[in-house]
Structure formats: structure tokens, C-alpha cells
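Researcher: Can you fold this with histidyl-adenosine monophosphate in place?
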Amino acid sequence: MAEKFKASKGTADILPDAMAGHRLVVETARAIWERAGYGTIETPIFEDTGLFQRGVGDSTDIVRKEMFTFEDQGGRSLTLRPEGTAPVCRAFVEHGMSRLPQPVKLGYAGSFFRHEKPQAGRYRQFHQIGVEAIGTESPLADFEVIALLDELVSELGIPGVTLRIGSLGSLDARRSYLEVLKGYLRERSGELSEDVRERIEINPLRAFDSDHEGTAVVMEGAPRLIDHLDGADREHFDEVQALLRAGGIEFELDTTLVRGLDYYTRTIFSFVCDRLGAQSEIGGGGRYDGLISQLGGPETPAVGWAAGVERILLALDPETETPSPDVFIAWADEGDRERAVVLVRELRLKGLSAGIDIAGRNLKGQLKQADRTGARWTLILNTDGSGELKRMETGEQQTIDPGDLAGLDLN
Ligand code: HAM
């Protein structure tokens, strides 16, 4: 027997009975961003590797060890997108969207790829939904995008969710803070994990994220970025918080919040769910005021988020379901077979969900099939041209003209 293939490690098929849940998350998100005036954008699955090196940042885990990178036949280095913000910003610059009325508001959904160690809630191919509001530094935009993710959480009814927010300040404020933090870490390098010690110079902020015990103790006393914000950053952050309070969106201030991407400035936020284990963040994002100019565009402040569809589904655990037809068409006499296929085709063209057996079964087999598919009604064609319409739940039956079927109330 030939060797059987399995889906590659950390990737998964979405089978039909799970598709309803997946679609519910994506469609709910799309409806939420569209009613807030966000257009939908789709960017390619792969991009030039340089986009992520420059956009996401050379010092991040994503770029250092998680990208699926390959060379194409022309010797160019390409990468399966690990995230959506850099590609959306690339598209913004490439299509001259800075000439459009600002801000440009965009939403997206799709597959993303990271070479991570697979576990519950962490996969190598996963799905994100996300929004980006590009072209304004107003705290109103921070508020709006956070409110959209909050709406998604409540509309889907995701239980046990907390919003954490923090601020990283502007790039300048961050640079001077990072020097202070590096100094603090260097002095205590003996107590830090090897991984954190190695990255003091390139990414000291990640030390806040470490689960190494000694590092955690050191980080408790570490200087906080929030205390190093300049006046404008502080005011911006205060306004974001005031808007959230006014909007009735509960949050926790988290002065140690960090994110795994380099482009963030000012507001950062994270929605965590207590029903999930180690991978508890269902979605998060923040401001990235320097990214567009870093990608060759004009100075353009922006803010957005992305959420993980699989993580939301883990938290929701929705019931699985497969589509069942409104009506199943069956026949007893072989001579009525053609009438049946023509009728099914007509009904489907009229927008009805109509089932039929396509395995050549006899009437008994067809009726069994009707039952299995969960059809609510069955119509058995009679040789005289009429049909017996049966409500499956009650067994009630009536004789009708099959031509009238599309006009009947099949609820
Ligand atoms: P991120 O935090 O890297 O941010 O990912 C956003 C969300 O994607 C996470 O909160 C998580 O739910 C989900 N996610 C990430 N990695 C995986 C994985 N390996 N398996 C399953 N789910 C995963 C970003 O990607 C930024 N682009 C967000 C953003 C948009 N910031 C500003 N605009």
C-alpha cells in the first residue's frame, strides 16, 4: 500500500462540520469592520522577505526563527506572511493610499504562517482577522479599533476576556528608556536566563515576557517605560484611557505589557481569555506610527490589531454542524430519475437548498439518505407527475404538484 500523507506538523484541515464556527468568527468580524467603514483588503500569501525583516524587525522571534522563507526560481527570497500589518502598509505605500482621504481604514482575514512549536492555540498555519486605521495619530482611532475588537468579543460571546493596555511611547522616548533598561539588565545579568542575557542589547523589552524565575524577579524591580513617557505621549495615553472609560470599555493598565513585534509605538493592547492555557491572547495590537515611513512611505501614524481565529474558537467551543437541505427529492420509478435531477437543479437555481441521492440507490436507500442529511422535507415523485411531500419531523404527508414546490413555505 502506498504511504499515506498527513497534514504537515502544526497545520490542520478545517473539516466541513467545523467550517460553520470558523465562518461565524470571520463573518462576524467582517460585518463589524464594514459597519464601521473599514474596506476589506487581501494581500498576497507571500512577500519579499525584506518586507518582514524591515517591517516586523530583525530582533524579533518572528524574523529570527519563525519565518517560512524560500528562494523562488529567480533567486529571490520570499516569505510566507507571518502577520498582516507589514503587508497592508506595503500595499498602502505601493498604491499611493496617502493621497486618499485619511485615515484609510482596512480590514482583512486570512492564513498566516509561523514556524513555532505547535501546541494548543499555537500553530504553524493559523488564521487571523484584523483591522488597521492608517493616517491619523488621534486617540480617537486607538479607541475605535479597540472598540471593534471589544464588539467582536461581545458579539461572539467569548467568555472570560480581559483587555490590557499599555504605552510604549514614541520612538525617541523608547530609545532613551531602552538605554536605562539595558543598564539595569547589564548590572543584573547573572540572574537572568541565558536567552534574555543574550538579547539585552538587541531586544531588552522581551525580558518582561520571560517565564524564567530569576528573570521575573529582576523584572519586578525594573524601570518601567510608562514612567519615561514624554508629555505628548502621556497625554495621548491619558486620552485613550479617557475615551475607553467614556465608551464603557473595561481595561487593566499593564505597565509590563510588551508585544512580539518591533513596530509598535505609543498604545499597545492585548485581549486575553482565561479559558485558554498558555496561549491566552485572543487578539492584540497597537499603534505603529513609524512603520509606513520605514517602508518608504510618507510619515503616517497608524493603529490596528489582529486576532487569532483558532484561539477564539478554542474559547468558544461552538457546536459543529453540517449544512442540511430544506428538501430532499426522491423517486421510486427509474423513469422519474431525470425529472428529479431537473427539479433539483431548478430549485437550487432559485436559491433553495435541495438534496438528492447521487449514488444510484433505490427508494429505500434514498429515504435513508434523506434522513442522514437532516433534510426537513422529502418529496417523492410519483409516476403520474405528482409528488408526496413529507415533513420529516412529524411524518405528515400531502400530495402536491412538484412545480409548486419552490413557492411553498418550507419552514
Ligand atoms: P500578533 O500578536 O503576533 O500580532 O498576532 C495576533 C494574534 O494572532 C494573536 O493574539 C493570536 O491570537 C494569533 N496568533 C499569533 N500567532 C499564532 C499562532 N502561531 N497560532 C495561532 N494563533 C496565533 C500581529 O500579528 C500584529 N500584526 C497585530 C497588529 C495589527 N498590530 C497592529 N495591527
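Model: Folded with histidyl-adenosine monophosphate in place. The longest helix spans residues 16-35.
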